[in-house]
Design goal:
By secondary structure, the protein is an all-alpha fold. The protein is 72% helix and 0% strand. The protein is built from five helices and no strands.
């Protein structure tokens, strides 16, 4: 009976080992592989919509950088999602700060014009 247990569990262990969490998959360092590598493309397409958008934005940003001669950093899909999420949050924060500064400036201008 002891010999059958490992043989029975072997397919389950192999299946578990082969199925990699999509966020743990590395992003190819060659942008042309992003389209030609069907396994990678299918992994990205299988992500939930918000995560897929973040990965695509990360890839677009780094594809432009690669066009300028910069190296594409080695990242997993999960790392790229988090990096892009932080970048977009920082950008939103900066945009809100600019909008607040612009509103303050307009308010000061209005006060200056209203003053006799």
């Amino acid at each position: 009976m002891l010999r059958r247990v490992p043989v029975f569990l072997l397919p389950l262990l192999l299946a578990a080992a082969c199925s990699t969490e999509p966020r743990d998959r590395p992003i190819p360092s060659d942008p042309s592989a992003w389209r030609s590598n069907t396994e990678f493309r299918n992994t990205v397409e299988a992500l939930p919509s918000p995560d897929r958008t973040l990965v695509q934005n990360w890839m677009l940003r780094h594809a432009f950088a690669a066009g300028k001669g910069e190296a594409i950093p080695t990242r997993t899909i999960g790392e790229a999602i988090e990096e892009q999420r932080k970048l977009e949050a920082e950008k939103k924060g900066a945009d809100k700060s600019k909008a607040a500064a612009g509103a303050d400036s307009k308010a000061e201008d209005a006060k200056a014009e209203a003053a006799p």
